[in-house]
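Researcher: Quick one. two chains, 637 residues in total.
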Amino acid sequence: MDKDKRKDLIIALALIALLFVVVVVLEQLLPRTSMLFTVLKKGSIYALVAVSMNLLNGFTGLFSLGQAGFMLLGAYTYAIFTIPMEQRAVVYQYYDGGIIQFSVPVFVGIVLAGIVAAIFAYLIGLPVLKLKSDYLAIATLGFAEIIRALFQWDKLGGLTNGSNLLRRFPVFKSSIFPIAVSAICIAIIVLLINSTYGRAFKAIRDDEVAAEAMGINLAHHKRMAFTISSFFAGISGALLAMFQTTVQASQFKSAMTYEILLIVVIGGIGSITGSCISSFLFIACSEWWLRFLDNAETYIGSFHVPLLRPGFRKVVFSVVIMAIVLLYQRGIMGDKELSISGIRKRLAERKKKKVKP
Amino acid sequence: MNKTVLEMNDITMQFGGVVAVNSLTMHVDQGEIVSLIGPNGAGKTTAFNVITGVYPPTNGNVFFNGNKIVENYPHGKMKKLYAGTDNGKYTEHIEPTPDQITRLGIARTFQNIRLWKSQSVFNNVLIAKHMLRTSNVFTATFHLNAAEEKRQREETAELLNILGLYEVRDNNCTSLPYGLQRRLEIARALATKPSLLLLDEPAAGMNPQETIELTDFVGKIRDDFKLTVCMIEHHMDLVMNISDRIYVLNFGALISQGTPAEVQSDPSVISAYLGEDENA
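Model:
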């Protein structure tokens, strides 16, 4: 039994290594502007934030819609603290070079992004986590909107550059970077979920009253889940800032939270692998595969394909999402996980079936 | 004389003007099985909820092993509505949350089964061990608590073995037959290593055969785990067979108490709850 587990772990690690090699090779072969890399970068960032949202919504049963707000905090924190000294005068041109007169290395910036988001989450969690289901969703959504407005406020300009862009902070070029950071973060979340704390979270999701009666401190555990989830949302916000190369508060609309929620629902509430798969599918569909639908001048032979025009992509995309939600009511994966041992079991069963008749 | 484990003094629980429990005073001694009986709506479950910290009482206090764990007195709006008599006797506010009570060593089961439905039988018991952990979230995440985790798993397996649930440990808890789900709830409560076990209608919905099994089972776990048991029950066979003492509630007030024989022959209990024997 244990031997099988170790074998599965080795196979999984080998597959991940293989994936990285493939990405590195592709980066050498394909032009840098290829949509594939956009999808890989953005997909991995969204995978991380979707998994962090799943930790809260799917595993702890807290219906929170504050994810975009925490991403914003992460993105701003990263940008504010990593803009190189010599660039600050240019970026903060209306605010005399800003009030922060130092800059930190990239990795410190990323961790700091998570920590700031986590601190905010802790403070907001104190009053808000007493609420349940829809009320919690409304409160967290409200928080995200307040943060967005606050960061555009003129008076905070020395820190946030008001409603102007933050730019010229260090960014990544290779898609290996966001994939690696996301992979590490998701691995940590998976470890957490499989630990005794993860089991306690699931107990709270399944039956709060019973969880409390069995000695699980509800307030403490909910706050913990909320803070940890926000920490990783903050990190993904930092990655998103690096991906976009600029940060502006107005990007982090509630629509962004809904996109993430959609990814979680499509992937399956309570499935980590589901969230990862669906975020790549979601980004690929919205950014790449359906692009051709936007081209009004599409001909097949001499036949001018009707209906196609800029924006038609979104119509088709909505229909696809509706179809998925209708056909897979519990998401692509439900609450199951895709795992090596699962596949092995499946294969073994199939073999047995083949032998029998 | 055994030492008193649980002591409730003048417990009154009012929801607005509705008096659910009225000046209930009772005690449970070490190693006893004490039953709380009475018609539906008599306030039995409310009394349990007061002990376990689900609601703070309107008035009165609760002692556990000599320590005061719950106390409250009527204040604010309740001052006007309070229907009891011993106003002014209690002066402290002690309102623990249910998890704190459980950590003190009082575990409970529920009237309507409340298992963690997505979890296996094994996990249901294992999760209840969470409160006994010494690891923090960091050490748990990075598997630095492997020894503790292993010990908890072994203890869980042992407990399931004793309670006869080991064979079904990997099944989802909802796939168990009703009687076993009840038993799993008790197993889960025992996993927190309590000294006092509160059973809220453990035989509800059980057939006669299952009820007889449960009677033996409750006695057995009392002896095996050195427990004190307090239970709410409607099956009179079960109650009269295993109880050392019985308290009878009606409309929130205590109407009788004593040994099964005493309670059975008490005319007020017969008229309020047990009913006349047809042959009498």
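Chain B has a mean pLDDT of 89.
Researcher: Thanks, that's what I needed.
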